[in-house]
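To close the chapter, one final illustration. This time we ask the reader to focus less on the individual chains and more on the assembly as a whole: which components sit near each other, and how the overall shape emerges from the parts.
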Amino acid sequence: MNVIPCGSVATIAAPEKYFTGRVLQTPIIENDEPSRLRAVMVGFEPGARTAWHTHPLGQTLYVVSGAGRAQSWGLPIVELKAGDVVSFAPGEKHWHGAGPTTAMAHIAMHEALKGVHVDWMEKVDDEQFGA
Amino acid sequence: MNVIPCGSVATIAAPEKYFTGRVLQTPIIENDEPSRLRAVMVGFEPGARTAWHTHPLGQTLYVVSGAGRAQSWGLPIVELKAGDVVSFAPGEKHWHGAGPTTAMAHIAMHEALKGVHVDWMEKVDDEQFGA
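The assembled structure is written out below.
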């Protein structure tokens, strides 16, 4: 059993290369094998979002607070609110983030395949975001 | 992309066979392959707890609210509070639940191995719980 007390893990600013706007990440768990589970709390300020990306084994988001949005490539933007759960299939190109005027926080859960849990692509521009 | 709106999944009472006291479960995700991720929100009323059990690929708990406790076989009971993260190794015999007078809710994250994510054992009696 390993206990990570609340407040003992530093929150970091998500890297500008893969995110637009101010995004804060607090790690929850980062396993490799045999458990491949990785989870992170992510807080997006209004207008902030990930770049387009895929996950080799997919991803599930549990929206903890606020209201935001997500989109899969070629599909309409979907509005998200606290308590919603969103899943993306392995290899599904997508993004997620806050709303234009509202913050959103979610727990992101995904699994690493051979140590890799995400493949980053181009940023989501303002037109795509629909601000 | 699959969105499960908040309020669209029924909360169920956890089965008496594997839990002591009143425990409510709200499913978040239940994958099999290639993603093996399973997650569930679990709320324990004061005094409620799981039976002893193991997970084939381990488990991570993110305490969402309240204060509770957990224990691995042969080790002391550990107190848990909101925001704490607890991980159990594959095959590690353990239990988790509320405090004697305090409710506790956590998100449980684990992975299924050949469709099985938990192996249940005997219940945690009052002496073990330390009520």
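Chain A has a mean pLDDT of 97. Chain A touches chain B at residues 1-7, 9, 28-29, 31, 34-37, 39, 57-58, 60, 62-63, 70-72, 75, 78, 80-90, 92, 94, 107, 109-111 (CB under 8 Å). With these observations in hand, you are ready for the problems at the end of the chapter.
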